[in-house]
Amino acid sequence: MSSSRACLNCGAQLRASAKYCDECGAPVEGEPASQAVGKMTKQEVEIILRMREQKDDLFRYHLQSPIPQDAKEAFEGLKYHPVNPSYRFLCKLNRYPNPATIGMMTSTGQERNYLKVGYVRFTIGGKSQTLQTFKAIQSFQQEGEKEPLFIPFRDATSGKESYAAARYLDSEELKDGIFLVDFNSAYNPYCAYSDDYSCPFPPQDNWLEVEIRAGEKKFKDQKQEATS
């Protein structure tokens, strides 16, 4: 007697011989592979720290910095969680056979379209987590170039330690559909620093219930803090 199966992605009941979910299109056979990366080399940690320093310099001095001009003098740098190897994963991208176009609402009330290309799974705190992955429809890709995945998300630190609306990840393919999902590289959208920018909000599918205590923390305007 065969037992019924449910889609790992959306929970819908599956037909006995189904290779893809009729509801969301996710592949059925096999649990999507993921692997915690574990220890980081000294060089890997230094690369992340150097990128953070370079971003501070860009925000402090560059003409296209999202930090408002009148706040630059008091800008002391962005705040981050310490680099933590336990928030790095090698994830198999489970691609949808027919990527759907979805509209993400932005901080300025507009809608921006993205292709929902697949999902990744990983484990934090003993619990399996799923994030949907996207690509911009208008993105241009050079021949041979591997286009990164765009992963907007919220988690249990949102509005507390991290920016309330969203954080973003750009995940690059390493080989054969395997992507590095490294939350140490999670960053705030530009609308976290200024209302002059329009930033997409993550769909509810990407609202994680666990804490992601890695990557960039909530931005505080040091100029406002000094005068408060």
List the helices and strands and how they pair.
Elements: E1 5-6, E2 13-14, E3 34-36, H1 42-61, E4 88-92, E5 94-105, E6 111-124, E7 127-136, E8 149-153, E9 167-171, E10 173-175, E11 178-182, H2 222-227
Antiparallel strand pairs: 1-2, 3-4, 4-11, 5-6, 6-7, 8-9, 10-11
Commentary on this structure:
The radius of gyration is 19 Å and the shape is globular. It is mainly β and 228 residues long. The strands form four sheets. A four-stranded antiparallel beta sheet has the order 3-4-11-10, with no helix packed on it. Strands 5-6-7 form a three-stranded antiparallel beta sheet, with no helix packed on it. The protein has a domain at 34-40 and 79-139 and 146-227. 11% of the residues lie in helices and 29% in strands. The chain contains two helices and eleven strands, in the order E-E-E-H-E-E-E-E-E-E-E-E-H. It has helices spanning 42-61, 222-227; strands spanning 5-6, 13-14, 34-36, 88-92, 94-105, 111-124, 127-136, 149-153, 167-171, 173-175, 178-182.
Query: Per the principal axes of the C-alpha atoms, what is the gross shape?
Result: globular
The major pleated sheet works out as: 4 strands, antiparallel
How many helix segments?
Answer: 2
Strand order of the largest sheet: 3-4-11-10
Helix/strand structural class: mainly beta
Order of helices and strands: EEEHEEEEEEEEH
Strand content: 25-35%
Keywords:
single chain; 228 residues; mainly beta; 3-stranded antiparallel sheet; 2 helices; 11 strands; disordered C terminus
